[in-house]
Amino acid sequence: LELPVLLAHVVDEARFLTDARYGALGILDGGRTVIVDFLAVGLTSAEEDEIGPRPTGRGVLGLFMDDPRSVRLTHLGSHPDSVGFPAGHPPMESFLGVPIKVRNEIYGSLYLTDKVGAAEFTDEDQSLVEALAVAAGMAIENTRLHQRVQELAVSEDRDRMARDLHDTVVQHLYAVGLTLESMAKESAAAGMADRLGVLVTDIGTAIRQVRSSIYELGLENADRGVRASVLTLVRSFGPMVGFDIRVSFEGPVDSVVPEVVTEHLIA
Q1: How far is CA 42 from its chain centroid?
Q2: CB 41 within 8 A of CB 24
Q3: Burial of 59: CB neighbours in 10 Å, binned 0-12, 13-18, 19+
Q4: Rounded alpha-carbon distances, angstroms, from residue 5 to 39, 48, 134, 191
Q5: For 157-189, b where at least 16 C-beta lie within 10 A, e where not — what string?
């Protein structure tokens, strides 16, 4: 269910099935115009350091962006689109590339090079890797769905916590505050009335802080208001000033402050 682990497993299985010395998996961006992530297996740490930056889709590796079909070559460098290898890259001859699709859309490609003990990859190798690519596409989609379910569960937990805070803590504090306020009015001793007044003020402050926490728990919701905008902005300044900036709100600002005022406020 962890995508990096899954992708590494796919490359390992492809190498094992085809006796390939090297394997790699390139993941395309949303527009399918560049490789944004590249996982290579079979290289030593020293070789990876020597090669430098990962490929972005030039040459043979980019063939699958426009034409997502399998490619099998005896000599990788003989293909007309080949751009050669960077300095320090180990030599590679035989090549097998297979696209990976998720919901019929190209997700990336699986690359295998240098079949051990043979000059080129076989039809059987290609069939096996193509079947593995289909399974990989299904597994990737399953992982994505699982991650979405987890995100939904976290969101639901956050909403539940916000409701619990409001329904229990805030209401309880409010009730205690009303009781103390009533006691302060009825108390004959002036000193006791003052102390009770301080407690009422403290409870009012606690209620505002809890309400701010409730709104923070709902920051991921699509309906973002003044609180969410202010808190997001303040968070961005935290690393600059070196401490957490405290913010408090009074009143139903999300429902009474118009959007045009919010824009000026944030500015």
Answers
A1: 28
A2: yes
A3: middle
A4: 11, 19, 17, 67
A5: ebeeebeebeeebbeebeeebeebbeebeeeee
Total-model pTM: 0.59
Residue 222: predicted pLDDT: 42
- Tokens 């099998």: give the residue: 72
Strand order in the sheet with 20-28: 35-41, 20-28, 105-115, 95-102, 71-73
How many CB atoms lie under 10 A from the CB of residue 129? Answer: 28
pLDDT score of 220 = 46
Are 22 and 40 in contact, with CB atoms under 8 Å apart? yes
CA dihedral sign, ordered 11, 13, 17, 21: positive
Give the number of other Cβ atoms within 10 Å of residue 63's Cβ.
Answer: 17
Q: What is the pLDDT of residues 11-42, one digit of tens each?
A: 999 999 999 999 999 888 878 788 888 888 88
Question: What pLDDT, in 10s, does the model give residues 84-121?
Answer: 787 778 888 999 999 999 888 888 899 999 999 999 99
